[in-house]
Amino acid sequence: MEWRHKNLISLEGWTREELSFFLDQTEYMEELLNRPIKKVPALRGKIVVNCFFENSTRTRSSFEIAGKVLSADVINWSSSGSSASKGETLRDTVWTLEAMAADGVVVRHGEVGVPDYLAKKLKKASVFNAGDGTNGHPTQALLDLYTARQKLGNLEGARMAIIGDVLHSRVARSDIQAFRKMGVHVTLSGPATLMPENTASLGVEYVSDAREAAGGKDILYFLRMQRERQEDGLIPSIDEYHRRWGATDSLVSLASPRAVVMHPGPMNRGMEIASSVADGPRSVILEQVRSGVAVRMALLYLCLGGVR
What we know:
By secondary structure, this protein is of the alpha/beta class.
């Protein structure tokens, strides 16, 4: 397949065939990571800038490792130690990145639309969305999709429940796009105060009762819950939230026998997930973390024109 995507802003424009092809490429990248000597010259001479306006450990580290394994020169740029903290505008940032001759720019920002803005302003560099506001987190969705396929095989007809704070979750939006394209039926559950107004427009159904939502599902995806949601009056209490929508052994037991438990991390144990579930036999949370490097390797390789 000829790869047609220069940037990754969202997965909206990706076809099912492209997702399948990408997952196959990720599998190849994972094979490289399992070799004694991991480094390959696929992106030698390319410059990748990790441009993070929000704190991140997993995403930034996995992009950095992915670039370095492929022999790209990786520069970590953060707003706290840059001119952005002194009032530099996004447009100034664009000029700086172009002056650095960046081939790829990985951007995370608290405002919706910043990756799209950079993609339109940068003349040559590819732009990769590492999370923008509550809008999307497409590379997280890709690694979730890859992990689920590795565990369950063909995802056509699989059933998935996404449980928690969907309203403020960029992960949920990207996961809905990705999994639905692969033929997965998606159900949302959580407090009504933490749901988008029109869930039907997303092509999913909403079930307030988590036990009903989890029943017979093949994938249980629990979203991270911010503690300030209680302060904002959006949940009654942490204990009540955990009892009604948290990943407990009782809730997970209602899923299908082959079901896997997923979480985007970092976890709030005892809030949205119990330790017995997070560390239990159905959990693939560590596999999600491991998949992150291979997924971002495949993305950099395909979009930056890497060579074998």
